[in-house]
Structures are given as C-alpha cells and as structure tokens.
Amino acid sequence: MDEIVVLCATGGVEQADTLARALVESRLAACVNLVPGVTSVYRWKGEVCREPECLLLIKTRAENFEPVRRRIRELHSYEVPEIIALPVAAGDGDYLAWLRAAVSRS
User: CATH code at 47?
Assistant: First the structure.
C-alpha cells in the first residue's frame, strides 16, 4: 500500500482549517480531518507543557509526504510542528481508489 496518514497538531481550529484547505486545494491531500479538543502534554525547552490543540489527520500517498511536510512547515506557526506519517496497512478498495484519484495531478 502506498497510502499514508500524516498527523499534525496545531494551536487551534483556525490554523488547522488553513492547513487543511491548502493541502486539499493543492491536491497534496485527498482529505483532512480536523479533530478539535485534543490536549497535548509534551516537553519543550526543558519544561513540561500542557496545551489544547487541534489534530489533523491528513490522508495522502507516500510520494506526497515531502511536499506535504514542506507545505506544513511553510504555513505552521510552531517552531517544530508535529509531522508524522503512518502507513495505511489496509483499507476499503473504493475509498483508497478515491484517495489516489483525489491527489492525482493528471
């Protein structure tokens, strides 16, 4: 399988929506789910932080990872945004065909 899900957390829904629209409009992602209300606990610059965030679930193809990563880095407000790709091990054939067509540039 060549499909991936990229995880990216943002500081809020507005930035998440901006990123999601940019990725889908440029055909780098077929679909982006915004999951508001996530609380993240993490260590940053020696301190343990706890912040509300909005999680993006970005559905795309593995070949799009680098362009997706670059676009997130261009638009994201965080110094070091979360950008993690997970492989899709299995999925509904019709959905995966739609995903591939949605990110196709032809």
Answer: 3.30.70.120
Q: DSSP H helical segments within 1-106, as ranges?
A: 13-25, 65-75, 93-102
Total structural domains in the chain?
A: 1
Structural domain including 61 reads: 3-102
pTM tops 0.85, yes or no: yes
Strands 3-10 and 47-61: antiparallel
Write out pLDDT tens, residues 5-37: 999 999 999 999 999 999 999 999 999 999 999
Parallel, antiparallel or unpaired: strands 31-44 and 3-10: unpaired
